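To: structure subgroup
Subject: Chain for Friday's discussion

All,

I'm putting the inputs and outputs inline so they're searchable in the archive.
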Amino acid sequence: MKIIEKALAFVGLLSLCALFIYALQDAPTDENFEKKLINDYNVYALQVPGNLEFAGEPVPLKNPDILERMDRELLVNTYWQSNGLLMFKRANKYFPVIEPILKKHGVPDDFKYLAVIESGLMNVVSPAGARGVWQIMPATARENGLEVNDNVDERYNLEMATEVACKYLLDAKENLGSWTLAAAAYNAGNAGVARRLKEQNVTDYYDLLLGEETGRYLFRIVALKEILSNPAKYGFNFREKDLYQDVPTYKVEVDTAVTDFTKFAESFGINYKILKLHNPWLREPHLNNRSRKLYKIDIPKEGYYN
């Protein structure tokens, strides 16, 4: 028994020694892992460009408060990589729709980035009831000629919504005197911005003390403009074929009711889902159209969904 006990004790000692040696050998592995982790993923402080501007109006970066706020938005949007890549992908699809409408109305091209921060270029719904890519409220939509009801909501029509956004921005620019303040007014309203300017006895957005959302608004727009204009500079890598592409469509005019959009879609060789993808402003599976209004429905060209 003593021999067995001694043997077992010896085996145990060997096991402990083996574990000790294994532990010593494992230390370099952990160190190598840490080195690999550091080398594969680095987070860098960003150098804020010295000449940022919005719609031709410079951002006063010599002001330390403005510099810090700009730095924050560049950091947040640079290192939110998945969201950033989605913005590049969607911008390639939707900017070609937005840009010519802005140009037609004389609204600076930089305002396309306002749509990016408003909705991420998606037809989202805000808690306050704003809808679509441009996040237009029902009253604003109706005041500018858009139809808004349970059957049809033209805030979801990107072309028509961009037209309304242009009208709002042009009016804000005339009232407030600068494109920067016009952009702020898109978030806080013309009256709200004008009241703050008067209360604080200033004339410039960057001199205003504002709430969190409106206070960050212009900085977020400028940050997205800078990043989307310089992908490689901010570490975004993609190929042209990685970006989302617009599907060409043609317009079908309808001035009567449509009782069944499933059958309507099938008559053009598509299904109801595809019809709704291209016409999200059609809110129900039928069109009432008691007034015999002329609607233009987008139909994708043949071959893109087959």
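Points worth raising on Friday:
The chain is about 55% helix and 5% strand.
The chain has a mean pLDDT of 90.

D.
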